[in-house]
Amino acid sequence: MTTPWTEDHMPDQTGRVAIVTGSNSGIGWEAARVLATKGATVIMACRSLANANTAADQIKALKPSGKVVVMKLDLGDLESVHAFAAAFRQGYDRLDLLINNAGVAKPPYGKTAQGFEQQFGINHLGHFALTGLMLDMLDATPGARIVTVSSLSHRSGVIRFDDLNWERNYHPARAYAQSKLANLLFTYELQRRLVAAGQSTLAVASHPGWSATNALRHSSMMRSLNPFFAQSPKMGVLPTLYAATAPGVRGGDYYGPTSLELRGYPKKVVSSASSHDEAVARRLWTVSEELTQVKYTLM
């Protein structure tokens, strides 16, 4: 990209429908704001309806040409994921964008409703299930894209198939890295399966670099360095928005910030070799279907 890409470069989104998970703050809120400003109907899929309604009111106050709609989605509870999918189908007949943005970063040990370690359960399994339940609507919508938000932390990630839920020796940062590596393994494997099935939907990934968001609330050291190194959520969202809407994006692309992938305007970046391990990706896919009981109809 010769000219820095900003939200002003986003094509008109009128008539399109987008789901943005975790859109009550940070990167997700910025994504919802820009998409609504560009004319899209944006589903703010959030765990807390109170927080989401407050966030939606802030966007509505900007008088966007599109709509913002709040819907309940708790990615830490697969029953909630199924309920969200069913409710969405009752109100909409198309889905142009699914932005898998929500996540938790480096918290004390905790489990989801179904007993998964919460970072693996929310960041990966919840989005894996949601994407699977929405895939037929995406496939039926021309030009649809799935954008899953990963992190630079994926580079230190290892998929611990012998202890995915960190029952032994829990380490918050390593568990987070595992979940973010899982996001990329999922994206690349999904794209391979979409191509094999002859589908036009694109699976793409992004990361926000070092952005000052609530995702860092469990890391006092990182928060203390924010004034010196972090960029704003308004900048951090640009790789995600580029992946979601820019012309020329291809399935399996990965976008991040320009400067050392920490800050700056979006560009195509390269993920770790481990994120491209197809054998690990296939195994993770099989395990994810078993754990979520969501079976994809693709090859």
Automatic annotation (TrEMBL):
GO molecular function terms listed in the Swiss-Prot or TrEMBL record: oxidoreductase activity
The alphabetized UniProt keywords are: Oxidoreductase
Q: Which Gene3D superfamilies match?
A: NAD(P)-binding Rossmann-like Domain
Highest taxon listed in the record's lineage: Bacteria
Q: Is this entry keyworded Oxidoreductase?
A: yes
Q: Which family does it belong to?
A: Belongs to the short-chain dehydrogenases/reductases (SDR) family.
Question: PANTHER family per the record?
Answer: PHOSPHATIDYLINOSITOL-GLYCAN BIOSYNTHESIS CLASS F PROTEIN, PHOSPHATIDYLINOSITOL-GLYCAN BIOSYNTHESIS CLASS F PROTEIN-RELATED
Q: What is the protein name given in its UniProt record?
A: Short-chain dehydrogenase
Origin species: Paenibacillus rhizosphaerae
Q: What is the lineage of its organism?
A: Bacteria, Bacillati, Bacillota, Bacilli, Bacillales
